[in-house]
Amino acid sequence: MLQLKTDALMATPCDEEEDNMAMLCCHGKNGEMFMLSRYPDEDEVELTWDYEPSTLDGLKITLSDTTLLVDLAAGDADALGGKNHLEITHDTAASDLAEVEKTLQNILKGTGTFIRT
After folding, report:
1. Contact between residue 10 and residue 25 where contact means Cβ atoms under 8 Å apart
2. Which helix (H) or strand (E) segment is 3 a member of?
3. Angle at 1 between CA 45 and CA 38, to 5 degrees
4. What's the alpha-carbon Rg for the chain, to the nearest Å?
5. What is the pLDDT of residues 53-111, one digit of tens each?
6. Which of 70, 74, 104, 108 could form an S-S bond across to 112 if both were Cys, CB 3.0 to 4.6 Å?
């Protein structure tokens, strides 16, 4: 399992300047970059890990107050350098978590699984 520590998850449920794209992004303490994005008219979710984009078929995200777990389908492991799981530890402000949750729901609607713990 890959692990990443970040100060905060940055979320945009609907970016009007980017054709209403939903996007979640964070940067790790060692310069890593993780991003999930999806346009409302597309069926695929794009995952970017260390600046390498991949499109995914199946995706499960579990969000808690301090952790974001990303589980990929077996066929998508190349998106995370051969790993199927990424654990992101975050210090996102409690007041920002509702926007993170809405963003993840928009990204995963009809294409993946979202769990809030």
Report:
1. yes
2. strand 2-6
3. 10
4. 13
5. 999 977 999 999 999 999 999 889 999 999 999 999 999 999 999 999 999 999 999 98
6. 108
Alpha-carbon separation of residue 43 from 46, 58, 90, 103, 113 (angstroms): 10, 11, 28, 15, 14
CA 75, chain centre distance (Å): 18
Distance CA 28, CA 61 (A): 18
Who's near 19: CB < 8 A, 6+ residues apart?
39
DSSP 100: H
Pick from 74, 83, 70, 77: nearest CA to 115: 70
Closest by CA position to 46, among listed 29, 27, 24, 63 = 24
Here the tokens at position 8 are 């905060």
**What pTM, to 2 d.p., does this model score?**
0.94
